[in-house]
Write a structure and sequence with these properties.
The structure holds 2 protein chains of 2 kinds. Chain A contains 12 helices and 2 strands, in the order αααααββααααααα. By secondary structure, chain A is an all-alpha fold. Chain A has one domain. In chain A, strand 1 and strand 2 form a beta hairpin. In chain A, helix 1 crosses helix 10, helix 2 packs across helix 9 and helix 11 packs antiparallel against helix 12. Chain B starts with a strand and ends with a helix. Chain B has one domain: P-loop containing nucleotide triphosphate hydrolases (Rossmann fold), CATH 3.40.50. The chains are: A mainly alpha, B alpha/beta. The structure holds adenosine-5'-diphosphate and magnesium ion (MG).
């Protein structure tokens, strides 16, 4: 039971990250591979505020998210100046820089040793050290995330960002300030990645730079592509599948060391299968 | 005063002069044809007006305001709309969404507004939209509002592009080969839409290779060759000019 709750918590956190990544990549067409970096900034921000300042959970999480948004606002200036392949490459560059900062800015981040003993939260006197309560918190925030992105993407604003995905030049010629929209999408997406990261840090209680290198960004992208670009429900299914598949493989009796390795094989095969047979993903309407 | 003033604009691509000291005016309400051989610089002219490309020199005025260096979206917001050569609607969104986007032209939707009042159209726009819906029926797209634009035929796509132009309600309309690849009956529909636009007071610049259509539709014709204006006047006069015959019509 404990194990199921834990998987549910991971799935909910992954879902928040995947839905917000879909907003950036699937709805707006900004091909960024730096989502795990914002996830990581949210995680580090929250963890450091909790351990170093003694701030309690809610303000620490909110500040962590705010910091993520600020970093995204600055990073988006050089990143969004480029498009398509070039944008993808600079977003990789950004991810490398952030990872390197986590490793080398030792006085702040504690370097490769990571941040230990991150306290689990207490909200309104209820201790969420109990996993069940933590799951409830994660689910509440997931539902909030879904409502927010659902409302945005169904609104005229959502039509505009889909138009930008389809053709930026045409949108400019119809009077839309494309770059302004893209910045706001990028920052909001990052903010929710930061939220997911903060939740992750406080749950797992120990983070290190290794959790936020490039690979997790790729995994998040696989969740989105698997579920379908531009489908919020799809991203949640994608997040759950990608979270649960490795555990199922362990159940299937594979030795855990091998299971960890074979994860990546499975993800790789999923990507091949999608690109060849179902580029719109399980529930998506749009092709990359 | 002229609605559009092009003053000595030049643009080179790696030494190739796509626009060379080009100047002309367009008066309010005119339909002006822009003709010339492939590579003459017609599409580049549209790109220059919208500041889609940086010009090397020259100035462009719209309604008396210098728009030479304004960003594209601001130029569009002032009331100019352009179609791209061979343009098709945005493929992976619906016909309705394509029209909505053309509509909201000039407006600026903030993220905050998403959570407040989220009516797409203001009341007066509603009237305009009713008109567009009628037009949709007229051109045979009435049942296609919820269809993804990529599922339309090529010709239907071009018609939708014209309806988007109408929806935008821009004062100056730049059409880059709106008839290319169309069957005769579609050509008739597009022609009618252009006449409608003109009747409602719009000013139109039309790039087209079909001389019959140019003669039929345009009040005036500008002939371009190698980035320069080589003739400017009514169709009959211009097409008798020897340099026009040599560089374009003779071929
Ligand atoms: N973005 C560009 N880069 C390089 N050359 C260009 C570009 N756009 C246009 N040209 C060149 O400028 C010339 C004029 O092109 P264009 O305006 O498309 O002609 P037209 O529309 O009259 O057929 C052509 O020689 C074309 O190859
Ligand atoms: Mg052209």
């Amino acid at each position: 039971m404990d194990f199921i709750v834990q998987l549910a918590i991971y799935s909910a956190i992954a879902s928040i990250a995947a839905v917000s990544l879909n907003y950036v990549v699937g709805f707006t067409g900004i091909m960024s591979i730096s989502h795990a970096s914002f996830y990581g900034i949210g995680a580090y921000g929250t963890a450091l505020l909790l351990t170093k300042t003694g701030l309690s959970f809610v303000p620490a999480l909110l500040l962590g998210v705010l910091i993520t948004g600020l970093v995204a606002a600055f990073a988006s200036v050089p990143i969004l100046r480029l498009r398509e392949d070039s944008l993808m490459l600079v977003s990789v560059g950004f991810a490398l820089i952030i990872h390197s900062l986590m490793l080398n800015w030792q006085s702040l981040t504690n370097g490769p040793r990571g941040v230990k003993s991150i306290p689990r939260p207490e909200i309104f006197g209820i201790s969420l050290t109990d996993k069940n309560f933590y799951l409830v918190l994660c689910l509440v925030l997931l539902v909030l995330t879904i409502i927010i992105f659902y409302k945005i993407t169904k609104s005229p604003y959502g039509t505009v960002i889909k138009g930008i995905r389809e053709n930026e030049e045409v949108m400019k010629n119809y009077g839309y300030n494309v770059s302004k929209y893209k910045h706001s999408v990028f920052v909001l997406g990052a903010i929710f990645a930061g939220l997911a990261g903060g939740l992750f840090a406080s749950y797992i209680q120990y983070i290190s730079p290794e959790s936020f290198i490039l690979l997790p960004s790729v995994f998040m992208l696989i969740m989105v592509i698997l579920g379908g670009m531009g489908s919020i429900g799809g991203s949640i299914i994608g997040a759950i599948l990608i979270t649960v598949i490795p555990e199922l493989m362990r159940f299937a009796g594979l030795p855990s060391s091998f299971a960890a390795e074979s994860n990546q094989i499975v993800y790789g095969i999923i990507l091949f299968a999608l690109m060849y047979w179902r580029p719109q993903g399980l529930f998506g309407k749009y092709k990359i | 005063m002229s609605l559009l003033q092009i003053k000595n604009i030049s643009k080179s691509f790696d030494g190739l002069k796509a626009l060379h000291n080009l100047s002309f005016n367009v008066n309010d309400g005119e339909i002006v044809g822009v003709i010339g051989p492939n590579g003459a610089g017609k599409s580049t002219l549209f790109n220059a007006i919208m500041n889609h490309i940086n010009k090397d020199s020259g100035d462009i005025y719209f309604d008396g305001i210098n728009i030479t260096k304004k960003p594209t979206h601001q130029i569009a917001g002032m009331g100019i709309v352009r179609t791209f050569q061979d343009s098709q609607p945005l493929p992976q969104i619906s016909v309705q969404e394509n029209l909505d986007l053309a509509f909201k032209y000039q407006t600026d939707i903030s993220l905050v507004s998403v959570f407040g009042r989220h009516k797409f159209l203001q009341e007066e726009q509603q009237v305009h939209f009713t008109k567009i819906k009628e037009l949709l029926h007229e051109v045979g797209l009435g049942s296609k509002l919820n269809v993804q634009a990529q599922d339309l035929s090529y010709g239907q796509g071009k018609l939708l592009e014209m309806l988007k132009v109408i929806a935008s309600d821009a004062r100056l309309i730049l059409l880059d080969e709106p008839f290319s690849g169309l069957f005769p009956e579609m050509i008739k529909l597009v022609t009618k839409l252009i006449y409608d636009l003109s009747a409602s007071g719009k000013t139109i610049l039309l790039v087209e290779h079909n001389m019959q259509l140019i003669e039929e539709i345009c009040d005036r014709v500008i002939v371009m060759d190698a980035g320069q204006k080589i003739a400017d006047g009514d169709f009959k006069t211009v097409t008798k000019q020897q340099n026009v015959i040599d560089s374009y019509l003779g071929k």
